[in-house]
Design goal:
17% strand, 5-stranded mixed beta sheet, Rossmann fold, 316 residues, alpha/beta, 5-stranded parallel beta sheet
């Protein structure tokens, strides 16, 4: 074979190889690999809201907007939040955790939310159907029931964000630490406690939610009969109380929570100096503990810290 033919064959072979490579690249670009398809399918998942609607949400949301009163739930679960209605985030247990979270107003300004480019919105004002619709035009929106007991909320967050294991671990850690706290406080069996809440001129007595979640645990205080019958059995969170009825609700220990404003503090001071108050057995035995109304909550971040705060109150 002469050199000219050899040269032509080499050129034709090189061209064929080049065309084969280009064709393979073209097929690769036009038809995604099985791995790429699999990743694509995993970017969203179906979620059934509390209203029964099935929506598509990101499997791993990176830019979450939360609207509601339990932002501490998400922060305790290390969920990335870019915006929230920070009117509910002035308490001491949360203020140092707000870096990087923009205030989007209350109950949520549409322009401010849109500007943050969220990939998921949790709307704690879940009964406002119109706002749910408006939010869903910006990003997938979940009506989130922040009034659920905290164990149900943490598990629901686990389902939404793919953190089911973390949710169960959080509950387990909390239960273990709470049991250790009560062992140290050594509350006698049957010893009762009452939570009075002073908001302005209104006095309330709390049930087994908010601070009651901690006080009325299995190893904690017993619930006074009046609170059980008039609040818990009626599925209420609290009732407004006239001062003359305080003796009916007062337990062996009294926790007085006061809103941080002049009117509430003045009313609380007046109550604690009143003749009726001084007749209560818990007062006479020195079993009265005062604290900020900020602690009247059961969001996860507060609950974690309450297990450290409660012994301090009782040992003052």
């Amino acid at each position: 074979m002469n050199s000219t033919i050899k040269k032509h064959l080499f050129i034709w072979g090189a061209c064929f190889l080049l065309l084969s490579v280009l064709a393979a690249c073209s097929r690769s670009e036009s038809a995604p690999s099985q791995e790429a398809v699999k990743i694509n399918e995993q970017t969203t998942k179906s979620y059934t809201t509390q209203t029964g609607e099935v929506i598509e949400i990101p499997t791993q949301p990176q830019r979450v907007i939360y609207l509601g009163s339990t932002l501490g739930d998400l922060l305790a679960m290390d969920i990335s939040v870019v915006g929230a209605n920070l009117i509910h985030a002035s308490e001491s247990y949360i203020v140092d955790r707000l870096e990087g979270i923009d205030d989007v107003g209350n109950p949520g300004d549409l322009e401010a939310i849109t500007a943050l480019q969220p990939d998921l919105i949790l709307n704690g004002y879940n009964q406002d159907a119109d706002r749910n619709t408006a939010f869903s035009k910006i990003a997938p929106t979940i009506p989130f029931n922040s009034a659920l007991p905290f164990t149900e909320r943490v598990r629901e967050l686990g389902n939404i964000f793919g953190k089911q294991d973390e949710a169960e671990q959080w509950i387990s850690r909390f239960d273990t630490k709470a049991e250790a706290m009560w062992d140290k406080l050594n509350v006698a069996e049957g010893e009762t406690a009452t939570i009075f809440l002073q908001l302005g001129k209104q006095l309330y007595v709390m049930g087994n939610r908010s601070l009651g979640v901690v006080l009325y645990q299995e190893h904690g205080f017993a619930i006074p009969p009046a609170i059980q019958q008039n609040i818990i059995d009626k599925e209420l969170t609290f009732v407004e109380l006239s001062e003359e009825l305080m003796p009916d609700y007062a337990g062996d220990h009294l926790f007085v929570l006061t809103l941080d404003n002049d009117e509430s503090r003045a009313e609380s001071d007046r109550l604690l100096q009143s003749t009726l108050w001084k007749t209560l057995p818990a007062v006479q035995q020195g079993h009265v503990y005062t604290a900020s109304a900020d602690w009247n909550t059961d969001n996860l971040l507060a609950l974690e810290q309450l297990l450290d705060e409660l012994p301090k109150w009782m040992n003052q």
